[in-house]
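Quick entry, no commentary yet.
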Amino acid sequence: MSKNASVADDVSPIAEAEASWLFRGLAQYPTLIVAVSGGPDSTALLLLLARWRSGLEQPPRLLAATIDHGLREEAKAEAEDVARFARQLGIEHRTLPWTQRKPKTGLMKAARLARYRLLSEAAREAGAAHVLTAHTRDDQAETVLIRMARGSGVSGLAGMAAFTSIPVKEGRGLALVRPLLDIPKSRLIATLKAAKIPYADDPSNRDPRFTRSRFRELMPALAREGLTAARLVALASRVQRVEDALNEVLNITQEKIAPAPWPVGGPVIMDARAIFDLPHEIVLRLLGRAITWAGSEGPVELGKLEALYAAMSEPLSAAMLHMDEFAKFRRTLAGAVVTLEGGRIAVEQAPMRAAARRQHGRLTKRPDDRPKRPK
């Protein structure tokens, strides 16, 4: 929804002019992958993209991709319905099956990561650098609420980004775009109803076994107390401003203390005294960035990072105050080893077996690189 729109507009269909604004900057890319499950949000996204593309002189190639997680009998038929709808719109379609063994616990997280892996593979095969999903304002509000309940830090409370990197190693260098993140779900449903287009209803969205479903059920009660989706999204937007400022300070600090490019797997070397004089939040972020870069297990969890820094604080203080010039510290986290010795902090990849090291191999790049944002 546009910034000047009223609450009454929450049930109005999305006009072509607004769709053009939502997809601004995407026309410059030759190929776009669109994740379409067949539900109302992604079906509306595909419809709006088709309308937008029809008004362009040199439109990008659109490829709709449907993930069949193999968890419901109806999934195959729903993928066929999406393929049929895509053909009607003149859009290519692929069904991507998740054939790996399903875990007994953490099923939704595993399914989400599998979805991003499959979309990343499809993007690379198609020569695309951007994957579009239909996350809405409602999804953003639920995400903020869930992260709040889990005690998230500033980064988590900023919610989902409209433009970011795909969160799996297969997606490195690819962009994840959420053009509908400011749009309420009700407007997407209204858009489909106005066009008389049917959509699938996934019952797992209401399954109380899943965290998001339980929080979704709470939303109406919270809204009656004033904690509406709009206010949760406003909170995320304000937190994002703080996040942007902190990241800017982090980038400046990194260039002074440990300038990029960093070697593959480290070591990333930092002067201990320079670290000691920094605000704790910046130290945590700098250590977290270095550990994520050098380690083999992806982004480090905030709680574990805080525990590592707390354990390092005493020997670090001793070293800086010359109480013990030989103060040492060494700990492994997220596949990286953090060492304090001789007045410096080193972060490097933990020892790995040869096969694991080959699988982990990555390209040298600046640790703050991200896909380019649409202009």
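second:
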Amino acid sequence: MAQSVQLLLTENVGNLGIVGDIVNVKVGYARNYLLPFGYATTPSEELVAQLADKRAQAEKDLAALRKQREDMISKLNGQELTLIRACNDQGQLYGSVTQQDIASALAEVGFEVLPREVRLSTAIKRIDSFDVHVKVDSDLEADIKIWVVADRELDNEESDEMEFDNEGELIVKETKKVEKTEEQAAPAEAE
């Protein structure tokens, strides 16, 4: 049984080719996706000739898209974004910042980037700054900086940690009590 089949693309298919390309694909991909949706057909000279105009238009569209992406990447490189997220007192986010979140934030400032084009090296799960790589094509890349900030003021004071003795009993530290002076206590008595 054949492992792959040769087909003529009748539509542009991402990561495969443009209209008029003759491609080799796995039988299952052809049978389950390309042929039922009308994206490909069996190649013939007549069909290649019929699709010549459509292919020329597709090449023009791809060239225009490429030019637009080159301009976008030149402006995108070095951009900084601030994302506001909910977190606990230690700066751990209650969720995480995803590729979709970054792509949406970029869209708000005028950069049309797909979530799959945002490359995260690690999951963003805390308040900090992160370098994010954006790759829109094999040779079109940019690096941006993401600032993840808390949605509220964090209590950054160093809290006293609990101390335990050798038996595991909690050591209670005495706190200094501020005694009221007679002047502070007097108005309270008058009322």
